[in-house]
Amino acid sequence: MGDTEFVIEPGRQDVIMIRHFDAPPEVVFGAVTDPGLIPRWWGPRFLTTRVDRMEVRPCGRWRYVNVDARGREYFFGGVYHDVVPPERFVRTWEFEGAPGDVALETVTLTPEAGGTRYTAQSVHQSVESRDAIIRADGPRGGRESMDRLAELLAAH
Description:
InterPro entries: ASHA1/2-like_C, START-like_dom_sf. This protein has helices at about 25-35, 40, 125-135, 140-155; strands spanning about 5, 15-20, 50-55, 60-65, 75-85, 90-95, 100-110, 115-125. It is an alpha+beta fold. The protein has four helices and eight strands. The longest helix has 18 residues, at about 140-155.
């Protein structure tokens, strides 16, 4: 299984996450935009995920819920701004536990070496907001999500 690479440079507002998948962009795009598949790969393994809303179209809303072993719920959501299958989507991303701290995420899927290069750039409103995500171990959740997505794609 490949590794997930993170580009986290001091003093910048963005985080870039890169992963190679052994599947064509159409298949990867389908997996990351299918509400029935999101619970199978989104989030760390110790949480379950429920899709409350997923309208993959410009101005469409999305909302996912992570649930821990004690039943506590953590809500994430935003609005899709651009959707170009199977090349990219752009959406806002907000953890409802920190309202108003909205990031803009661009996911780009590029054909590469018999598979797909998945690049997600999340631009936060400030360096401090970005750094708070890093301190909260956001890259761990991203890495686990990408590992789970690779497992899902390999099974199809």
